Amino acid sequence: MFTFTDVNGLQVNLFFEPNHKVSCQHVLVLVKRHDQYLCTIHKKRGVEFPGGKVEKNETVEEAAAREVWEETGVRISTPQWLAYYEVLDKTPFCKTVFIAEAVEEEQVPIDEETIGKLWLTEQELFNQPKLSFYMRDEGMAKILEYAHAKW
């Protein structure tokens, strides 16, 4: 387990070993194409990896693929489990982190939360002036480190 304090001052516990007793209702997906990562541009938070909430009667893998498609128009390979993290907020929540490869890309209408997508190298990603708060914390660096080892 890797524990850190996020930019909002909340404790976050990051796990790279699955715990089948934990049921996360949110997903985060790192999608790669060659040496670039797929990012969404969230209207409020800025540039970040796609993700969102698991809907009723949906698996976390299905949610991962759906969220990437809805936010970016990119179809992905089968999402591979990478990690999960729990944010110890007033109402704690958990996110499952997946990695996947881009398979197909289409134009989709902009949804209510995002205003487009970007394909960025890791260097371009971390030089983004409007990088989302959660993309700037210690946990994201650890997640990317583990993702590199899997790809």
TrEMBL record:
Can you tell me which residues the record assigns to a coiled coil? none
Q: Which GO terms describe its molecular function?
A: hydrolase activity
A Pfam family of this chain: NUDIX
User: Ranges for the Nudix hydrolase domain?
Assistant: 20-144
* Residues annotated as signal peptide: none
Sorted UniProt keywords: Hydrolase
The answer on whether this UniProt entry bears the keyword Signal reads: no
Similarity section: Belongs to the Nudix hydrolase family.
**Record protein name field:** Nucleoside triphosphatase YtkD
- Protein species of origin: Lysinibacillus alkalisoli
